[in-house]
């Protein structure tokens, strides 16, 4: 099909042909200057060539400012949307959205999706993609608005139901409603919402509601569908072949020296953890059912939080003797402080790529940690090693504030290439 506003004058038409040839040859800046003239302002083809040339040039130079110019040029072309054929509108809109997402400016996709929704009102998937853009931009409020409208028109759309369940759970803490939406989305395990994260959130919402039997059923279904490594190991960012067990003996790992060194220095580590009380932050993921729980990060994603090692020099110097700990991009090193009376609900960590070492530091009496089916207790100056991608739960039924040092280490089955290349979590 044709671009709108094709100039009637032969001269300008041949200018556009030349610009098209320049685009093909990679002469992008020549192409852009040729079409950026007043006489071609009303030409769809000129706007398309300009956007394409800026786009290619941004891609070749990996230049974000150029990419922003390309996005603006595409949006300029989309201003002619009423004159664009369905085919052209789709082609331009798709590339614009793709570039907007690549650039990470998700909210800019909204007007483009609005055009698509207006042109193709019967196609629910543009609405669902707009929802996803809002969620990527951390605007659950805007996503929720779109979702409500979508579900008014398509009450049984599984993708919309699943996202609505997610938003209700994670942003509005409406767990009952979240469960209803997610259950409907996943009915019969069929359809497009059949994704690990939706099984995860449905199970998690049921756990938070204390509906353990129903949670277990969902976890079993999720594992059967291959969404989870097993019903109790439900991390979503996994390397599949790694050995899976909830509790580890440190002797069966390369981390025995680390454990011994932590244990040998535990009194100094305790002092460092206690001296930095003002730096602790309250846990905010909603994992605790009751009580007080706060943590002080020292290293996150394999990097020190600036200044923290100066506050905890002994702790850091021991951790740094083991690269699998200090460079663990999928873990943390942190102190964890828990008040008496605290209960942390059953939950799982995000990845199977780490093991979690705990060093008991204070008031460990009558405190318990369950990982999968087995409950253990901390002891002062002693380490525990477990895989927190398995469901775990913590109780402090004793007195006084319990302190532990948490040191995540790479799973011993990972290769060095994997440790280098895995994206951080
Ligand atoms: C957890 O990872 O949930 C717990 O081990 C944290 C803690 O402080 O015991
Ligand atoms: Mn945990």
Structure notes:
α1 runs antiparallel to α2, α6 runs antiparallel to α7 and α8 (140-153) packs antiparallel against α9. The chain is an alpha+beta fold and 425 residues long. It has helices spanning 10-25, 28-35, 44-61, 64-78, 86-103, 110-119, 124-136, 140-153, 158-170, 175-186, 196-208, 212-224, 256-264, 266-275, 308-311, 313-319, 323-326, 416-421; strands spanning 281-282, 288-290, 293-300, 303-304, 332-338, 343-347, 354-362, 367-371, 374-376, 383-386, 392-396, 402-410. It contains 18 helices and twelve strands. The radius of gyration is 27 Å and the shape is elongated. The mean pLDDT is 96. The strands form two sheets. Strands 1, 3, 4, 5, 7, 10 and 12 form a seven-stranded antiparallel sheet that branches. Strands 2-6-11-8-9 form a five-stranded antiparallel sheet. Manganese (II) ion is lined by residues 347, 349, 388, 392.
């Amino acid at each position: 099909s044709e671009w709108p506003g094709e100039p009637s004058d032969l001269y300008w038409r041949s200018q556009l042909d030349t610009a098209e040839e320049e685009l093909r040859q990679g002469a992008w800046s020549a192409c852009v200057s040729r079409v950026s003239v007043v006489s071609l302002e009303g030409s769809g083809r000129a706007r398309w060539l300009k956007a394409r040339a800026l786009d290619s040039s941004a891609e070749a130079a990996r230049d974000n400012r150029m990419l922003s110019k390309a996005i603006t040029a595409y949006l300029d072309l989309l201003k002619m949307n009423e004159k664009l054929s369905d085919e052209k509108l789709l082609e331009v809109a798709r590339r614009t959205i793709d570039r907007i997402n690549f650039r990470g400016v998700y909210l800019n996709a909204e007007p483009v999706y609005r055009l698509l929704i207006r042109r193709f009102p019967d196609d629910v998937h543009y609405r669902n993609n707009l929802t996803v853009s809002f969620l990527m931009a951390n605007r659950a409020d805007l996503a929720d608005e779109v979702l409500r409208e979508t579900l008014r028109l398509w009450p049984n759309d599984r993708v919309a139901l699943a996202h609505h369940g997610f938003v209700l759970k994670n942003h509005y803490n409406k767990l009952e409603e979240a469960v209803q939406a997610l259950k409907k989305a996943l009915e019969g395990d069929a359809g497009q919402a059949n994704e690990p994260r939706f099984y995860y959130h449905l199970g998690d919402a049921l756990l938070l509601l204390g509906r353990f039997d129903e949670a277990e059923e969902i976890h079993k279904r999720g594992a059967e569908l291959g969404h989870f490594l097993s019903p109790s190991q439900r991390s979503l960012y996994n390397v599949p072949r790694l050995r899976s067990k909830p509790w580890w003996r440190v002797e069966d790992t390369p981390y025995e020296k680390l454990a011994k060194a932590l244990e040998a220095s535990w009194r100094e580590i305790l002092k460092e953890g206690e001296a930095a009380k003002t730096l602790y932050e309250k846990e905010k993921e909603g994992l605790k059912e009751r009580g007080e729980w706060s943590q002080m990060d020292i290293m996150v994603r394999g990097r020190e939080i600036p200044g923290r090692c100066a506050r905890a020099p002994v702790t850091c110097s021991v951790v740094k003797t083991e690269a699998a700990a200090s460079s663990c991009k999928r873990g943390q090193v942190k102190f964890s402080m828990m008040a008496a009376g605290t209960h942390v609900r059953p939950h799982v960590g995000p990845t199977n790529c780490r093991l979690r070492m705990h060093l008991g530091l204070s008031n460990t009496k009558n405190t318990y940690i369950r990982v999968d089916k087995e409950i253990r207790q901390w002891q002062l100056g002693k380490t525990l090693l477990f895989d927190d991608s398995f469901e775990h739960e913590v109780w402090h039924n004793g007195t006084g504030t319990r302190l532990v040092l948490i040191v995540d280490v790479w799973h011993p089955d990972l290769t060095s290439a994997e440790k280098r290349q895995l994206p951080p979590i």
